[in-house]
Specification:
single chain, 386 residues, mainly alpha, two-stranded parallel sheet, 18 helices, globular
Length: 386
């Protein structure tokens, strides 16, 4: 140790597996300390759902329309209710378990580049303590880690060219939460470039149907089950719920028109971008797919109406993965993590004092500068090729 500079000592510390194991333990202790916290989402939704399940025959409760999630998560709540364990703690434990599963897949993707097991320990230490992820699961008791774990698994298998497994995981993710569709522009480009055959995507509606089948068999109308996501989109008649996208500038008085226009514009943007990116003159490398995945999960919620404060969850994960793999442009990653965290703050007691405009500006700057970097990278590959 003698004679080493502070920079060399720091580097030596972070190159040790044991150092990251210590940070993992610290992260777990922080999460455990948050277990007793009860907030609105638990008090007004999750706790009443658990009570309803217990008083209506557990699985038999599926025939009632007492929840606004897909049945996939309700099956988990039924299992938790059956255990008799503290419902608040058990809900948070499930979310935390999936945080480490998604961290595992972040490590698997990073391993494709580095082929060094240290990336798993780094991922387990960093991903679960990203501000928005820490708040989402251990603090709020939300379950965004579940669909995100399947999205990251899907992306990993896509990188490994395991098409069937990739779409299987993607279908499961969408069966849990519709926010998984933020990654779909990436898969659209993969399909157009023949990285994934089009017929594999037929699995997605099949998986969703299988996920609602038990609930239908217990007696809930199929029409309700097939339109859950449509009903969710109309649950709050607001263009944005503390989310700093373009709709902070549009009054909710124009909700119906702005919502339709926003969805159509996003679909058109995805279509035209996908067609442009399908051009064979562009050479897509592993890093190109990573950057496109990151862009996909931050641009789509920026363009869509009705976004909630936690809808940059995938953006946080991809931001961390992007920096782990590129080790440059840290302002892209930090910018998204900051915007996501700020959105959570705007949904707290500070919502009346924190304006969304500063977060919007940072969000827009990250998208524009990162898109410019991505296009520059693509055009350079085209010039080299031709």
């Amino acid at each position: 140790m003698k004679g080493l500079t502070r920079k060399e000592l720091t580097r030596k510390f972070f190159l040790k597996k044991e150092s990251w194991m210590i940070l993992i333990c610290v992260g777990l202790l922080i999460k455990i300390a948050m277990f007793p916290v009860k907030l609105g989402d638990y008090n007004f939704y999750l706790a009443p759902w658990i009570n309803f399940i217990k008083t209506h025959g557990y699985a038999s409760s599926l025939k009632y329309n007492f929840y606004n999630y897909t049945p996939s998560y309700i099956y988990i709540l039924i299992a938790l209710a059956k255990t008799g364990f503290n419902p608040l703690y058990s809900i948070k434990i499930v979310s935390i378990v999936f945080e480490y599963i998604l961290a595992y897949y972040v490590g698997k993707i990073a391993y494709l580049k580095y082929e060094n097991s240290l990336v798993f320990w780094i991922s387990f230490a960093v991903i679960p303590v990203l501000p928005a992820i820490l708040l989402n699961g251990a603090f709020w008791g939300q379950c965004d880690s579940i669909y995100s774990a399947f999205v990251l698994g899907s992306f990993y298998y896509a990188c490994k060219k395991k098409q069937l497994l990739s779409i299987l995981f993607l279908g499961i993710a969408i069966a849990f939460k519709v926010q998984a569709v933020f990654i779909l522009p990436l898969y659209f480009v993969m399909m157009l470039r023949s990285n994934i055959k089009w017929f594999y995507f037929l699995l997605i509606p099949l998986i969703y149907f299988l996920s609602i089948l038990p609930t239908w068999l217990y007696g809930r109308p199929l029409s309700e089950l097939l339109t859950i996501y449509f009903s969710q989109s109309n649950y709050f008649k607001l263009l944005t719920l503390h989310f700093p996208n373009i709709y902070i500038w549009i009054s909710d008085d124009f909700y119906d028109f702005a919502k339709l226009a926003g969805v159509l514009f996003t679909a058109l943007f995805t279509l035209l971008s996908g067609i442009w990116l399908s051009n064979k003159k562009f050479d897509f490398s592993f890093e190109t797919w990573i950057e496109l995945a990151f862009l996909s999960v931050i641009i789509i919620p920026f363009l869509l109406p009705g976004m909630h404060e936690r809808y940059l969850y995938l953006g946080d994960i991809m931001a961390a993965l992007y920096f782990i793999l590129f080790r440059k442009n840290i302002h892209f990653s930090l910018g998204i993590i900051l915007v996501s965290f700020y959105a959570y703050l705007c949904c707290s007691r500070f919502k009346d004092t924190l304006p969304l405009e500063p977060a919007f500006i940072i969000y827009l700057l990250v998208i524009v500068s990162m898109a410019a970097d991505f296009i520059k990278r693509l055009k350079s590959t085209a010039n080299e090729k031709y």
